[in-house]
């Protein structure tokens, strides 16, 4: 049924704002995230890790790779080296051997070993809680830093990956031409009470519901709020 998801929340598609009518209202943003929270109060990322260091490495390795593929590679890698000291000692060739199933594995191995050495030399082997310090590490950009700050240290950062970028633009929640523009738009629009989990809710929504080629609009819990004019059921 076309409006089943919307009807479950007491609205119909006819009640929804038309595409192109501008940003969502504050009430609509609160409504959307209230629904996300009710469905999944404590959302989790899908990368496997045990501490901030293994999380950092996993996120660095996840560029142009699936979480499933990264997890498959890091199980053996982390069994061999789960600390910056051990990873630096393992060396590029061995790291590359463990992650050879991932795209760009040689460059990633170089970055992982280099960032491990820098953590030992400049941060006492600890992953810094500072964005600038994180982004100074090889292979670590803004998105990776945001993931680590959010998941490892509980900071309300929003990491914009391809899924989140698509959801923000397609729905009209926080359209932007660049990941940074989307990030800033979301930070300005999402109430503080939802910001800790916002990026997980939106990434998972994009990964499993608001997919690039075949969006599952009939299963979407914010379909009545979405501005996208090409909803498919």
Coarse morphology = elongated
User: What is the structural class?
Assistant: mainly alpha
C-alpha end-to-end distance: 8 Å
Mean pLDDT score: 91
Query: Residue share in helices?
Result: 55-70%
* Helix count, DSSP H or I runs of 4 or more residues: 11
Tell me the radius of gyration: 19 Å
Strand content: under 5%
Description:
This protein is mostly helical and 233 residues long. The protein is built from 11 helices and no strands. It has helices at residues 4-7, 26-39, 52-61, 67-80, 84-98, 105-123, 131-135, 142-153, 162-171, 179-189, 192-208. The longest helix is centred in the middle third of the chain and has 19 residues, at 105-123. Residues 1-20 have low confidence and may be disordered.
Task: Give me the secondary-structure topology.
Layout (H helix, E strand, L loop, with lengths): L3 H4 L18 H14 L12 H10 L5 H14 L3 H15 L6 H19 L7 H5 L6 H12 L8 H10 L7 H11 L2 H17 L25
Helix pairs in contact: 3-8, 4-5, 5-6, 9-11
């Amino acid at each position: 049924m076309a409006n089943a998801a919307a009807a479950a929340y007491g609205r119909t598609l006819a009640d929804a704002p038309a595409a192109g009518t501008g940003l969502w209202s504050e009430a609509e943003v609160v409504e959307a995230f209230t629904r996300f929270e009710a469905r999944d109060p404590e959302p989790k990322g899908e990368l496997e890790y045990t501490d901030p260091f293994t999380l950092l490495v996993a996120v660095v390795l996840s560029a142009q790779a699936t979480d499933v593929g990264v997890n498959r590679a890091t199980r053996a890698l982390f069994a061999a080296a789960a600390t910056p000291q051990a990873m630096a000692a393992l060396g590029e060739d061995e790291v590359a051997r463990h992650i050879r199933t991932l795209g760009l594995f040689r460059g990633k191995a170089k970055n992982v070993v280099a960032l491990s050495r820098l953590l030992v030399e400049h941060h006492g082997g600890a992953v810094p809680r500072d964005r600038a310090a994180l982004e100074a590490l090889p292979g670590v950009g803004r998105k990776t830093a945001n993931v680590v700050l959010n998941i490892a240290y509980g900071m309300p950062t929003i990491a914009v990956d391809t899924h989140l970028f698509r959801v923000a633009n397609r729905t009209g929640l926080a359209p932007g031409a660049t990941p940074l523009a989307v990030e800033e738009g979301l930070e300005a629009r999402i109430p503080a009470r939802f910001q800790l989990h916002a990026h997980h809710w939106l990434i998972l929504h994009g990964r499993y519901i608001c997919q690039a080629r075949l969006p599952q609009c009939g299963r979407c819990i914010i379909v009545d709020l979405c501005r996208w004019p090409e909803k498919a059921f």
